[in-house]
């Protein structure tokens, strides 16, 4: 008889912190055995944004059948899973509680370890799921709907926050600008599509904080400038809207590139420039960051598009990374609406209440 194949542990991941319900089974060798991502766009579209109560209910309705479907597709029984990883925050607390309580119930029922994952850590480590050769330390630009940060990723659980936004996250600026331009929900991908036919040089929009020494971000002024520019056109043509979308996208990209260039100087030990989070799906931003990395002699790593936006494979992967270090949680792990990756980071000067 031949020796059994050693495949490494298997982790079931659950994600429910915003408006995607997601479940995935990921092996330590990076194979995704099965996964489901259910978007709630239809439920939230009439409101032009995510309604927390609706999101929590949808997670509660969908999660159990999705877990069953993922296990069935992979031909795996719950008992064959080595650990359960569930997002424990930060995010919309109702949804986080639904996912975390589900993860705890499975861990308890099957007597498996629970790993309470920080959603931001899921994004931060997701490039290592896609790219086995990506080693620590790396410089990470983490750009999503709720966060806009530059982090020195020194190891699993070891994050140095180099910069954050003093007002809005860049994804929020994409979403709100898309709303002003009448592009619907979700805004980021719609704005990118509309910008494709537009002239990025037509509207002179501001680039807040560009040139400042600290690598922090600011997007509120840019968002307001889009609103003013739109109000200044009485009967906007399709071309006007495309030009304004392209001008916004270019201004946002310029801000991200300038701030990231500062952070490269502040974190010279980085072996790669990495981008993650929903906004990392944007092709203009990916292209500009790739050029920046090249200019500094750094490899550029960006996860595939589906792994940039919210999913459970990144949560299962973060679970794998922590399981390998023996870093597991007990069933008292709390659900956290806020949970900074770097607990020692000070608030950025001029910042409001955001973590
Ligand atoms: O990481 P994510 O899926 O959820 C959060 O954790 O926030 O990020 C969602 C954000 C939204 O603001 C969405 O508009 C933005 O990512 N986004 C994009 C694109 N795809 C998603 N922004 C710009 N261009 C895109 N292609
Ligand atoms: Zn996210």
Task: Please sum up the structure shown.
This protein is an alpha/beta fold. The protein has helices at residues 41-44, 52-74, 93-110, 119-130, 170-180, 187-195, 220-231, 238-266, 283-295, 305-308, 313-324; strands at residues 10-15, 20-27, 32-39, 83-89, 114-118, 138-143, 148-155, 158-163, 273-276, 300-301. Helices cover 41% and strands 17% of the residues.
Total helical elements: 11
Q: How would you name the oligomeric state of the polypeptide chains in this document? A: single chain
Query: Under CATH, the topology of the largest domain is which?
Result: Nucleotidyltransferase, domain 5
Q: What is the mean predicted local confidence, pLDDT?
A: 95
The shape, in one word, is: globular
* Number of structural domains: 2
**% residues in beta strands:** 15-25%
The CATH homologous superfamily of the largest domain is termed ATPase, nucleotide binding domain
Q: In CATH's first tier, which class of the largest domain applies?
A: Alpha Beta
Q: Cα distance, first to last residue?
A: 57 Å
Q: Top keywords for this entry?
A:
single chain, 355 residues, alpha/beta, Nucleotidyltransferase, domain 5, 2 domains, five-stranded mixed beta sheet, 11 helices, 10 strands, 41% helix, globular, binds 5'-O-[(R)-(carboxyoxy)(hydroxy)phosphoryl]adenosine, binds zinc ion
């Amino acid at each position: 008889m031949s020796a059994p194949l050693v495949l490494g542990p298997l982790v079931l991941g659950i994600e429910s912190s915003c408006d995607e319900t997601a479940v995935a089974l990921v092996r330590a060798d990076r194979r995704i055995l099965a996964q489901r991502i259910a978007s709630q766009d239809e439920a939230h579209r009439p409101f032009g944004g995510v309604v927390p109560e609706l999101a929590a209910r949808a997670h509660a309705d969908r999660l159990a059948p999705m877990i069953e479907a993922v296990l069935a597709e992979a031909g795996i029984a719950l008992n064959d899973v080595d650990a359960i990883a569930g997002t424990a925050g930060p995010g919309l607390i109702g949804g986080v509680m639904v996912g975390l309580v589900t993860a705890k119930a499975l861990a308890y029922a099957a007597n498996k370890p629970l790993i309470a994952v920080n959603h931001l850590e899921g994004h931060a480590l997701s490039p290592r799921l896609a790219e086995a050769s990506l080693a620590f330390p790396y410089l990470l630009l983490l750009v999503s709907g709720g966060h806009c940060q530059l982090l020195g990723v020194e190891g699993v659980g070891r994050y140095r926050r180099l910069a954050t936004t003093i007002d809005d996250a860049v994804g929020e600026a994409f979403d709100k600008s898309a709303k002003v331009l009448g592009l619907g929900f979700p805004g980021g991908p719609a704005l990118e599509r509309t910008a494709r036919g537009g002239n990025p040089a037509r509207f002179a929009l501001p680039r807040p904080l560009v040139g400042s020494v600290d690598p922090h971000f600011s997007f509120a002024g840019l968002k307001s400038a889009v609103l003013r520019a739109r109000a200044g056109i009485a009967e906007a043509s399709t071309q006007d809207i495309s030009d304004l979308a392209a001008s916004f996208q270019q201004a946002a990209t310029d801000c991200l590139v300038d701030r990231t260039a500062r952070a490269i100087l502040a974190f010279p030990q980085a072996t790669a420039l990495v981008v993650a989070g929903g906004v990392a799906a944007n092709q203009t931003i990916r292209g500009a960051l790739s050029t920046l990395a090249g200019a500094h002699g750094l490899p550029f790593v960006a996860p595939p598009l589906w792994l940039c936006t919210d999913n459970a494979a990144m949560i299962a992967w973060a679970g794998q990374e922590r399981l390998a270090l023996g870093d597991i949680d007990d069933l008292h792990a709390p659900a956290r609406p806020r949970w900074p990756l770097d607990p020692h980071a000070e608030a950025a000067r001029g910042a409001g209440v955001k973590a």
